[in-house]
Design a protein that fits this description.
heterodimer; A: mainly alpha; Topoisomerase I, Chain A, domain 4; V-type ATP synthase subunit C fold; 3 domains; 18 helices; B: about 70 residues; mainly alpha
Chain lengths: ~350, ~70
């Protein structure tokens, strides 16, 4: 292993960050009347090449989706290429694994509800280690069992937790069983990889622990909404969060109401959830709270940019900033397709 | 009898300046190469930035030359 030359890599990352869409560019996209307008505007940005490539096969929303997805994937692959064979490669792989888990979950969800393969494929982001061809093969499988079997045949590590939990899933027909097993495996694996006091380890560890907190809070919200018994909560909660331990999380579930649970978050980094409009608590619209948590995570990720410039922090910050940009472009394009008003569109945007 | 202290002093002044310049250019050069790879329009600026630490070695050279003149 060779210590990475952060001077070179981070200079490239800063250059790539300079090409991210700024607030003005996003404003111009928002002000376009339709999807075609958004496409034309994107051709004036760093997305031009991907839009041109995608427009050969697709048009409208599909073209934007494909272009944005390919651009996102190539950004990840480019950074991985810079650190190939060096110490920092493991950190980038941890960040990439997030997308593998996300993609496997999407495929399992799709197979669980018997969604058509092209529909599942559209929802995937092949930014992780599982490339588009691998994912396409997984999507072709007829059911959840076949997907897990194929992962096991290819000796992909994610097959382990899925195989172990499949019996329970089959008996209860409850997909969260598999999703939880996958989350626990990936977070445990990631935390194992970033043990130690090195600065890079600390940066990654704090981000992973924050992600565990956010995942747990989302689970708590769902458990409260579904009136799940508090004693069952433990089996769906992940260990290793930064601010919320299992006892605290179980006490949140025991409150029995979303509003009371959010009030209990006072004094933690998540007390900002208390500012959510009251009707969200009354109507139990947990999607609004989930979005606030996603915004928090993105802001935390992007803020890594201001840490040590000769560390992995810049790569972490860039990848979160890119994720934010891609998500915002997709939201804008989808809102234009659905003819949603500008006011509602701005509310939908993750973090501008 | 030659006084070796003076040429050794001149050598240290020049050598340390050169090493310092090398270290600075190593860092600036790699970061500059990364920047130029992403944004070729910054090439001119990067050449200037890479050249700035040369002042260190020039200063070392001047000091060592002055020491050598003292020897004469």
């Amino acid at each position: 292993m060779i210590r990475v030359d952060y001077g070179y890599m981070n200079a490239r990352i800063r250059g790539m960050k300079g090409r991210l869409l700024n607030r003005d560019a996003l404003e111009r996209l928002i002000n376009k009347p339709d999807v075609e307008g958004v496409m034309v505007e994107l051709q004036r940005t760093s997305y031009r090449e991907e839009i041109e490539k995608a427009s050969v096969r697709f048009s409208g929303m599909s073209c934007i989706e494909t272009a944005v997805r390919n651009d996102f994937t190539s950004a990840f692959r480019k950074i991985l290429g810079h650190v190939h064979g060096e110490d920092a490669e493991k950190y980038i792989r941890i960040l990439l694994n997030r997308w593998d888990v996300q993609n496997i979950k999407t495929i399992l969800r799709g197979k669980n509800i018997h969604a058509p393969a092209p529909e599942i494929m559209d929802c995937l982001v092949p930014a992780g280690e599982l490339d588009e061809v691998t994912l396409a093969e997984l999507v072709k499988q007829p059911d959840v069992k076949s997907v897990i079997d194929l992962l096991a045949t290819w000796r992909i590590p994610y097959a382990q937790p899925l195989t172990r939990s499949f019996k329970e899933y089959f008996e209860r027909q409850d997909l969260p069983v598999l999703e939880y097993a996958l989350d626990r495996f990936s977070f445990d694996h990631a935390l194992e990889m970033v043990k130690g006091d090195a600065y890079d380890n600390q940066i990654l560890r704090l981000m992973i622990m924050a992600e565990i907190d956010v995942t747990n809070l989302k689970t708590v919200l769902k458990l409260i909404r579904d009136r799940a018994p508090a004693d069952e909560a433990g089996q769906y909660l992940l260990k290793g969060g930064i601010s919320l331990d299992l006892a605290k999380l179980q006490s949140l579930v025991r409150t029995g109401s979303i509003e009371a649970a959010v009030k209990q978050l006072k004094g933690t980094p998540y007390e900002f959830l208390g500012k959510v409009p009251a009707e969200v608590f009354i109507q139990e619209k947990i999607s609004v709270i989930e979005k606030e948590l996603d915004k928090y995570l993105i802001k935390k990720g992007v803020s890594q940019f201001f840490k040590d410039p000769l560390s992995i922090a810049l790569a972490v910050g860039y990848l979160w900033a890119k994720y934010n940009e891609v998500t915002n472009i997709r939201i804008i394009a989808r809102c234009k397709t659905a003819d949603i008003s500008e006011k509602e569109l701005r509310e939908e945007l993750l973090y501008v | 009898m030659v006084d070796w202290g003076i040429p050794i002093g001149a050598g240290i002044a020049f050598g340390m300046g050169a090493i310092g310049t090398g270290m600075a250019q190593m860092k600036i050069g790699s970061a500059g190469a990364g920047t130029v790879a992403e944004r070729p329009e910054t090439f001119g600026l990067m050449v200037v930035l890479v050249a700035i630490p040369e002042t260190l070695v020039i200063l070392g050279f001047v000091v060592s030359a002055m020491i050598m003149i003292m020897l004469e």
